[in-house]
Amino acid sequence: MIAVSGALPKALAELNACSHDEFVAALANIFEHSPWIAEQAARSRPFAGIAELFAAMKAAVDRAPAELRMALINAHPDLASKTQRAAGLTAESNAEQNSVGLDRLSDAEYEAFERVNTAYRSKFNFPYIVCVRRHSKDSILRDFARRLPNDLATETQTSIDEICRIAALRLDQSVIGGDRLAVSGRLSTHVLDTNSGKPAAGVAIELVELAELGVSRVVARTTTNADGRTDAPLIGGRPVPIGRYELTFGVGEYFAARGVPLADPPFLDRITLRFAVSEPEGHLHVPLLVTPWSYATYRGS
Amino acid sequence: MIAVSGALPKALAELNACSHDEFVAALANIFEHSPWIAEQAARSRPFAGIAELFAAMKAAVDRAPAELRMALINAHPDLASKTQRAAGLTAESNAEQNSVGLDRLSDAEYEAFERVNTAYRSKFNFPYIVCVRRHSKDSILRDFARRLPNDLATETQTSIDEICRIAALRLDQSVIGGDRLAVSGRLSTHVLDTNSGKPAAGVAIELVELAELGVSRVVARTTTNADGRTDAPLIGGRPVPIGRYELTFGVGEYFAARGVPLADPPFLDRITLRFAVSEPEGHLHVPLLVTPWSYATYRGS
Amino acid sequence: MIAVSGALPKALAELNACSHDEFVAALANIFEHSPWIAEQAARSRPFAGIAELFAAMKAAVDRAPAELRMALINAHPDLASKTQRAAGLTAESNAEQNSVGLDRLSDAEYEAFERVNTAYRSKFNFPYIVCVRRHSKDSILRDFARRLPNDLATETQTSIDEICRIAALRLDQSVIGGDRLAVSGRLSTHVLDTNSGKPAAGVAIELVELAELGVSRVVARTTTNADGRTDAPLIGGRPVPIGRYELTFGVGEYFAARGVPLADPPFLDRITLRFAVSEPEGHLHVPLLVTPWSYATYRGS
Amino acid sequence: MIAVSGALPKALAELNACSHDEFVAALANIFEHSPWIAEQAARSRPFAGIAELFAAMKAAVDRAPAELRMALINAHPDLASKTQRAAGLTAESNAEQNSVGLDRLSDAEYEAFERVNTAYRSKFNFPYIVCVRRHSKDSILRDFARRLPNDLATETQTSIDEICRIAALRLDQSVIGGDRLAVSGRLSTHVLDTNSGKPAAGVAIELVELAELGVSRVVARTTTNADGRTDAPLIGGRPVPIGRYELTFGVGEYFAARGVPLADPPFLDRITLRFAVSEPEGHLHVPLLVTPWSYATYRGS
């Protein structure tokens, strides 16, 4: 569970039962600095589930006049802007930007993001908005490159779509009770020792999110259990960020510990699988079938 | 063919027929600064093949008194010593040390080699000798760590053995005609596209020798031919240095060029296989079987 | 759920609450023709679970005097005996023998079983007993060949062990409520299309139990679902009989239906995997990774 | 080398130098009962190679008037006709038909071929001709089903094409010296033990040509050598007949002999790969990568 802000998640039943003002206060920042959306949604209470609540908020955005929609867009901060970070973001924006590492950019990355923001803002006159929890730093920069050639109407709608994705993730983390929104994905692995025909237990695993310009980040570090799997998914309960990854398996140590005869140095030691994620809400399974002399992987499900 | 020195390879027939002095001059540095070995071998002419010639030289070493064998050991330079390089090595030693990158060490590597040499020389009172063409920088440092605890008798014999390996490689490169000594290995690959059931042609391949302390070196950069193989082995006609390697295949570009539907970004783009070489004179085949969603490799032959 | 006999499964609560005679009547044939075991177990009522009930029955067997244990052994019918089948077996024995196909033997098989029974009975003077639900016809014949050289004491104990296995399976099917005994295994598969990187849906699958002497039997015939799996395990809710199997996948039709270019005739059409089961209570997963030009399988879990 | 008939292969040089009559006598039956083709080709002597000789014979066919071409077609026997076999075929026709097993048909197959011949002859008024060395019995029956709906012009040309294929194979076997015609294919395998990372030596291999209606035929029975390959290709020096095959590998015995721990019975014992051949002149490599718990195969080259 991602702690979106300091506030505890609210129960849906409570939101259905509380006063109008309490409801608005609780959901004021689901859409950045835009409590009017919560206000309109409040009138449709009670909600049978979180999906219904989200639909009511999205409907408020969809039927808002163009000026109000543009105000919603402009209520968002620039990505990775040091000035704006210093001046203060909402707790939600801050947590989101940190989740993708925008608070720990290399100089080259920082400059790349500055270029993105400036180029985008000077063309469209509003900030570049993307649901950062669905992305790695690299894929944000690629997304920007794809969107910059668009016309104003397309980018206005794309911005609203991304804002709704941000809101759906915030809502999913802020309200509990009943259903969940389909905003999370899962990345998992397992290791099968085809030398012994058994799941490989005790294999050290490391998942790194690769970055072209900056420092790659270790996302997960774990060890396979008796079933050759990891106790928790490598990434779960949140979108799997679009991006490139490297998954490393310490098979040399594993086979050595089992007394399997190996070459010196062992033919296979730390096996790395490099792959990309393109569907943040999908279930991606990347297993390893391994002997001391061979291995295979595939996109499973 | 490795150019060991400026001299052209001699034909065995010529060596059999020339004067004693010419014979000795031609083979004076097969054993470093030790023409007495060529002198003794000269008396056994003619030789039916290079293996017989090498056996005669090795016999001269084996029957030499202990002092002469120790002088042979002491005729060798320290590995990677800047002072000795400045003072001048034989052309053969220079080429050999350069082949493994000892002339382009990082500071950390340079210090590691200095430590090796000093520790070894202070214990045994002669230089640490290893046949560098059979090694990567990393494996030399590991070899040293394994040998340092040995006693004097063991290391004296090990040094002679390594000197004979060096000599065999020099001889194999210096003399032509008839047989070759079994001093070369081979590292090869091929790429099979199991999506189309055909060899994958036009796949960009890069082979890197990994270094723990210093800079990894690109050993080969090539492209697969119509048969999914490389026109020449990745390493051939010489020992395959003991060490760790990374082989990279540009499969994303390959499938994109063939119009195969891919995710965005593609699930597999640049596939890297990491493996170690432990038998420099062996034939190691590391193929890739690949679809856009899966791959496998194994140690073939 | 296997219908062991015509009787409906009893609830454990009911067995705990009913009269002594009703209890004994319900469980009289859990051990073949030996109601004295149910009678002794009845005194330990109530039972917290089925495992506890089984333990009480097994304890009655374990503490019985040798003569009574031998009577228990002799209460069992010969395997596949036409005479005894004509004379009438318990409903339980009949269902068990039919489950492994002992009512549909080829002439060669019938003769083989006759030889087994006669040889065994003339050596030990009691019938050969084996828990047939854990076996195929072939593995029963192999089990006999392994056991025939044993001495009397060993075979007496082995017979009691097999009788307890038979009883555990009968009890697991006859009583419901609370726990299950660990007497069932599972055989499953799934098909991954590594050409498209997705589960292969709609692949026809057939599982055949192979027989050396007689007719092989189709055990399951099904089609993969959207997840590339079968809706139910190929074998589940019962032991997976020890034996050899052939699993066939109609991949030619699958790829043709998807419009994938194939050779004529297709390189791969009906893929068969042959494997053996050795642990009837284990979970055995035998997947297929397939393109039109390659496939792989492994023992998974 | 296939012995097409009792005659020894002739050297091309000899054919270039001998008398016109000797030349015609030597090549009279390259085209069935049609020495006029050899007669015409004789005038173009000398030939630089076998391909040039074949081109001259084919040119004679191509420029022949329609009646002569039809006579050539009608000079061929019906396939698998017992009456015609009794009356006597050319040695060449006899050897060819026997090679595909047409002299050892099951009753069901014999009836199927009778139906083919009768239906074909009644529609086209000439015998169904196919180059049988490129086919299995099953693929001949499929070829017939594909060709029967054709019109007369198409089938006349197809018959001539098949006659030329038959002639090319006869010529390739009858004349030696210089080039070979591209009429042969190759089917090969190798076994890699990915448990030990080495070629699997001593694995028993059997290749069976499958037949739907009749008895499947063992085509090759061999054992892998030290390189995990077979000393000779499974099929080589001739076309690889279009058809379906089963390749069986005795891996259970192989691993047991090496002392590898196995289940009882072993999970994998006799592995069978079923595949089809569609290109008789191609090189088809079907390897097996195997551990006691997994295996993979692919169409290699």
From TrEMBL, chains A, B, C, D:
Domain Transthyretin/hydroxyisourate hydrolase: residue ranges: 187-300
This protein's pathway: Purine metabolism; urate degradation; (S)-allantoin from urate: step 3/3
Domain (Oxo-4-hydroxy-4-carboxy-5-ureidoimidazoline decarboxylase) ranges: 16-172
Keywords: Decarboxylase, Hydrolase, Lyase, Purine metabolism
EC number(s) reported in the record: 4.1.1.97
GO terms for MF: 2-oxo-4-hydroxy-4-carboxy-5-ureidoimidazoline decarboxylase activity; hydroxyisourate hydrolase activity
InterPro entries: Hydroxyisourate_hydrolase (IPR014306), OHCU_decarboxylase (IPR018020), OHCU_decarboxylase-1 (IPR017580), OHCU_decarboxylase_sf (IPR036778), Thyroxine_BS (IPR023418), Transthyretin/HIU_hydrolase_d (IPR023416), Transthyretin/HIU_hydrolase_sf (IPR036817)
Pfam families hit by this protein: OHCU_decarbox (PF09349), Transthyretin (PF00576)
Catalytic activity: 5-hydroxyisourate + H2O = 5-hydroxy-2-oxo-4-ureido-2,5-dihydro-1H-imidazole-5-carboxylate + H(+); 5-hydroxy-2-oxo-4-ureido-2,5-dihydro-1H-imidazole-5-carboxylate + H(+) = (S)-allantoin + CO2
Presence of keyword Lyase: yes
One GO biological process term: urate catabolic process
Top EC class for this record: lyase
Summary of the function given for this chain in its UniProt record: Catalyzes the hydrolysis of 5-hydroxyisourate (HIU) to 2-oxo-4-hydroxy-4-carboxy-5-ureidoimidazoline (OHCU).
Sequence similarity: Belongs to the transthyretin family. 5-hydroxyisourate hydrolase subfamily.
Known partners and oligomeric status: Homotetramer.
Protein name, entry field: 2-oxo-4-hydroxy-4-carboxy-5-ureidoimidazoline decarboxylase
Species of origin: Bradyrhizobium uaiense
Lineage of the organism: Bacteria, Pseudomonadati, Pseudomonadota, Alphaproteobacteria, Hyphomicrobiales
